Amino acid sequence: MENGLMKDEARLAILEDTARKLSIKLSYEDLKKGVVDTHGGIFRLRDEKRIIIHKSLSVADKIDVLLDILSGLDTDGVHLPPDVRESIEGVRKKRTRPARVEEDRQIPS
Fold first, then answer.
1. Beta bridge partner(s), residue 24
2. What is the DSSP string of 10-41?
């Protein structure tokens, strides 16, 4: 089990680094208090893309949240280990709609 956890922690570190390489600020916060009840997500604050993930999630759940978010972004310019890229692509293929940052939505005139 410990070896699997170490592998998961290394995988999480790669995904976190991928977000940074995409100029996205990543943080872990308590997202389960008050009216907020989410595992995490991506958004834009002023001119900065941000990902916030619930800090109490397991390493495996943090990986799942990051894979879901990164699958909605263009990661082609980022060097990734083949198994990580395959995971992102696998999630991307399963998505019914891509994750979007608010600014990407078109508002009719």
1. 49
2. HHHHHHHHHHHHTTEEEEEE--SSTT---SEE
CA distance 88 to 105: 23
Q: Which residue has the higher pLDDT, 37 or 63?
A: 63
Q: What is the pLDDT of residue 101?
A: 54
Please give the distance of CA 87 from its chain centroid, rounded to a whole number: 12
The residues with which 52 forms a beta bridge, in sequence order, are 27, 41
Q: Which CATH number fits domain 2-97: 2.60.120, 1.10.40, 1.10.4030, 3.30.2010?
A: 3.30.2010
Residue 68 is encoded by which pair of tokens?
Answer: 């879901």
